[in-house]
Design brief:
The chain has about 350 residues and is mainly alpha-helical. It has 18 helices and eight strands. The strands form four sheets. A two-stranded antiparallel ribbon has the order 1-8. Strand 5 and strand 6 form a beta hairpin. Helix 6 packs across helix 10, helix 6 packs across helix 15 and helix 9 packs across helix 10.
Length: about 350
C-alpha cells in the first residue's frame, strides 16, 4: 500500500480533536489527584514537625488564671491534668488541694470551719472562717509584693517597674525563650493563644488604673495596686473619697448617720429622698462605721470600713452564702447543701479568696 502524506487539513482536524481531549484528561487527572487523601508522614517528617510545633516561639498553651501572678510557673502536662479538676483554685490553696477533687475540697473546708463539730455551719462560723482566709490572703499579698517587684525591676534596676519589664517577665514565666521575648511584637502577639492575648489586654487596663504618677512605670505601692488591688492602701483611700463624694452632703469631711442612711437623688428641679432599707443602713453605720459611737465617721473610721480586713466583708459574704444555699431555711449550712452548690462555694472567699477579691475589683 502506498503511503500518503497527510495533508494540512487532516492534521488540523486531528489536533482540533486531540487538544480538547488531552486538556480534559489533564483536568480530570488533577481533580482526581487532589481528592485523594494525603499520604502518611514518614518518621523523619513527623519528628521535624513535632520539634517545630514544640518550640515556645511558635506555640504556647496555658490556662490563664484570674490573678496576675498566682500561676507564674511553667505547667507540665501532668500538672495540667491534675489542675483541670481544680480550675477555681488560683491562690494559696493550690499546694494542699492540687490532688483533691471538688467534693474533697469542700468537705475539707466544711470540717475546718465547723468549730463546734455539729455538722452544721451557722453564720458566725462561716464569718470567722471567711475572715481567716481574707487575713491570710492580704498578709501573703503584701509580704510577697516587694520580692516580686524586685524580681521584675531589672532593666534597669531603678526602683520602678516598667510595662516592658513586666511584659518580659510575664512571657518568660510562661515558658517563652529570651529570644522570643526580645523580638516579641506586642501589637500582633505572634504565637500566643487568644486567651493569653486577652489576659495581656486586661493587665494593660489594670496597669493604667494603677499607674498614678507615670503611665509607663509603677512604684512598689502602685505595683501592689496592680497585682492585688484589694490590698492597696491607695485604692482604699480612693474608696473613702468616693464615700465622701456620694454621702457627705455638707462637705465637712465627716459622714453622719443621717447622710449615710437617707440617700438623695436629684431630679430635674427637685430632690428625691430614697428611704429603701434605711433601717438596715442605720444599723450598719452604728455597727461597722461609727466605731467611737459619736454619731459621725471621720476618714480613719471610713478607712477601717472599706478595708478588706473589716469584719463586715466576711459577715456579708456569710449572709450571701446562707441566702443562696440554705435550702431547708434553718439559717445554717449542711455539707450536702454545700456539695449541691459547688460553683458557688469554690468561687467564694471560703475557698478561693484571691479569685473572689479580684472578681470584685
Amino acid at each position: 500500500m502506498k503511503y500518503r502524506k497527510p495533508t494540512k487539513s487532516s492534521l488540523f482536524l486531528r489536533w482540533s480533536y486531540s487538544v480538547p481531549l488531552l486538556s480534559y484528561l489533564a483536568f480530570f487527572l488533577l481533580i482526581w489527584t487532589l481528592s485523594l487523601p494525603l499520604s502518611p508522614f514518614t518518621r523523619r517528617s513527623t519528628i521535624i514537625l513535632n520539634s517545630q510545633w514544640n518550640k515556645p516561639e511558635d506555640s504556647f498553651e496555658i490556662r490563664m488564671k484570674n490573678s496576675n501572678f498566682n500561676s507564674d510557673k511553667v505547667i507540665s502536662d501532668n500538672e495540667v491534668t491534675e489542675e483541670s479538676k481544680n480550675e477555681y483554685l488560683v491562690n494559696t490553696n493550690n499546694k494542699e488541694n492540687v490532688n483533691k477533687n471538688q467534693n474533697e475540697i469542700l468537705q475539707d473546708v466544711f470540717s475546718r470551719a465547723d468549730k463546734n463539730m455539729d455538722r452544721k455551719l451557722d453564720s458566725n462560723e462561716l464569718s470567722l472562717w471567711i475572715r481567716k482566709k481574707i487575713m491570710e490572703h492580704i498578709s501573703l499579698a503584701v509580704s510577697n509584693n516587694f520580692n516580686l517587684f524586685s524580681q521584675i525591676d531589672v532593666d534597669p534596676k531603678n526602683g520602678v517597674v516598667t510595662w516592658k519589664e513586666y511584659h518580659s517577665y510575664f512571657l518568660k514565666k510562661r515558658g517563652f525563650s529570651s529570644k522570643y521575648v526580645k523580638k516579641h511584637d506586642e501589637k500582633r502577639h505572634k504565637g500566643l493563644l487568644r486567651s493569653v492575648k486577652e489576659q495581656i489586654l486586661r493587665d494593660k487596663a489594670y496597669w493604667m488604673e494603677a499607674a498614678r504618677s507615670n503611665p509607663d512605670a509603677l512604684t512598689v505601692d502602685e505595683f501592689l495596686a496592680f497585682t492585688h488591688p484589694e490590698s492597696s492602701a491607695a485604692n482604699q483611700l480612693a474608696l473613702v473619697d468616693e464615700l465622701y463624694d456620694k454621702f457627705d452632703r455638707n462637705g465637712d469631711d465627716f459622714l453622719t448617720e443621717e447622710e449615710f442612711a437617707v440617700l438623695q437623688a436629684e431630679g430635674n428641679d427637685e430632690t428625691m429622698v430614697i428611704r429603701q432599707d434605711e433601717h438596715e443602713r442605720r444599723a450598719e453605720f452604728r455597727k461597722a462605721i461609727d466605731l467611737n459611737g459619736d454619731g459621725k465617721a471621720d476618714r480613719r473610721e471610713l478607712l477601717h470600713y472599706v478595708a478588706p480586713q473589716s469584719p463586715r466583708h466576711s459577715e456579708h459574704e456569710a449572709e450571701a452564702l446562707l441566702a443562696l444555699a440554705d435550702v431547708d431555711k434553718d439559717n445554717m449550712l449542711s455539707l450536702n447543701e454545700m456539695l449541691a452548690h459547688p460553683d458557688l462555694f469554690l468561687k467564694s472567699k471560703m475557698v478561693d479568696t484571691a479569685r473572689s477579691f479580684h472578681d470584685e475589683f
